[in-house]
Amino acid sequence: MGHEPEASAHDPLTALLDGVRLRLRDLNDGEPASYIPELGRVDPRLFGLSLCTLDGQVYGSGDRAVRFTAQSVSKPFVFALALADHGLENVLARVGAEPSGEAFNSIRLEPGTGRPPNPMVNAGAIVTSSLVAGDTQKARFDRILDGLSAFAGRPLTVDEAVYASECATGDRNRALAYLMHNAGSLTGDVEAELAVYFRQCSVLVTCDDLAVMHATLAGGGINPVTGERVVASRHAQHVLAVMATCGMYDASGQWMLRVGMPAKSGVSGGIGVALPSQFGIGVFSPPLEEKGNSVRGIAACHLISDQFGLHLMRATAPERRPLPPRSLHPAPLRSLRHRTRAQRAALDARAERIRVHVLQGDLDFATAEQTLRAALELPDAVGWFVLDLTRVGRIEPVAADLLRGLAAELRTRDLRMVLADPDERQAMTRTADEFPDLGRALEACEDELLTGIGLDPDIPVPLADCDLFGEADPGLRAALAEAFDTLDLAAGESVAPPQTVPLDRIVLWYVESGRLAVCADAADTVTTRRTWSAGPGAALTPADFPPRRTRKVVAERDTRCRTLTAAGFRRLREREPDAVAFLERAPLEGAETVDRGDVT
Ligand code: GLU
């Protein structure tokens, strides 16, 4: 074990932890605890520092692997086990949740009930360890040791010498326990309860263990290294809350003020810190200040919190807020559905009716509230509010709730909320229609708009009536239509890619009924990204077919196509030279796709 920081680090985070230790190397105040004689034998120069991320990466510096007894650092975890066994209310009936403002071994109990002030001081911890499920003293301790091991992600053991030393000298704890027994807050055999508590304090851990244990709390009860759920997320939250207010003995207020992260210290010199949703830290340095906290441990946590702006109460600087939502107006977006001339004209004339709002980053309270405000201020003309969640990471529960409420409110205003969300987050689907991408969401809105004005885009359009033939009279139209073959596709069938054989080559596909779409050549055509689609009235040329083999044109419904081959086109030109003029310019126009602005 080295007492000096290593000269070089392998990565920036390790370098940072080394740097913290290096800066505190000359801080030699305090003395190791000696009221438990065995603890006084420790080498005061030991100094370790570890950090565990929520994906289970453990970084460490110095004496990170040296084992020491957990002492009071075990208390939050045993509190968690008691919560898991009895629930919050039942545990609170036996032990309070108020900072005592007194020393860890304070003898004051709540007047009347005899309840100890909180689970982080000795009296409270003796009660919580007595609450852990188990019929016998051994069964209870086994559950505690297994529980602590699950938090650490490896089997932990007990330092029997420290245990014996605590047992022999723990008269103050004994006095506390008897007082509580007398007051009714500690039931059962007092000596047996104390033995469980002393053993729990004598469990051996390292800085790395403390980092993983606290990362488990920070991550909502799931051990980031083993992936095991150790306690329910709400119990992890309860524990962190009590650590934040009571974890640092009678220095808890100062700690919250200056460091601002839930933490627990122990008289052996360990401190565990958990920053919710971020990481866990373990520090070990035996010399203590007068309140029983590790001197270098406190200083290290101050440095880390200060240097990296980790205080829980700090307001996120405005420039670090997620990008605000963007409302795209005037709406430049159109789906990639092939539209007939009449449909395009109708949509162009009503561009303001469909409004798209693009969200990015994590969807938290603030972003949801901004979205809400934007939606509620939409002009009356807007009939569809499309929320693009394609670039959204996490959706906080509060944001999901607000958006669900928004969908309901918009419905009462005759405004429909539609989501584009590749992750199909179930939380949102209950009140808003959801599509796997923006193209399909827009297409659904356009279809509804068109249907509402009598231009139902799914009504079959016979070839003889199509846009392609422009001003041609009925006789000419019939002659043109005759040159086409019929191709029926069942839903799910794909269209053969254009062949290269010159004369059999199809040069024009016309959709009479049903729907075609381009999607990835995978079994799951629903969720794979789709580009254009084509319904009745659409005409496609070989140029519309995807060049890549990984994508194909599929019939999304039973579809009837009319196709014109190169040979058919040649025959037609010979027979009806006038007619061909229509065909030569029409397909491009009819098959045109619309620019989707900057969010394709
Ligand atoms: N086992 C120690 C005691 O009860 C724990 C105290 C502490 O770490 O705060 O005295």
From TrEMBL:
Keywords: Acetylation, Hydrolase. It comes from Streptomyces endophyticus. The keyword Hydrolase applies. One of its GO terms (molecular function) is glutaminase activity. It comes from the Bacteria. This is Glutaminase. It catalyses: L-glutamine + H2O = L-glutamate + NH4(+). Belongs to the glutaminase family. Residues 354-431 form the STAS domain. Homotetramer. Coiled coil: none annotated. The gene is glsA. Its EC number is 3.5.1.2. It is an enzyme of class 3 (hydrolase). Substrate binds at S72, N122, E166, N173, Y197, Y249, V267.
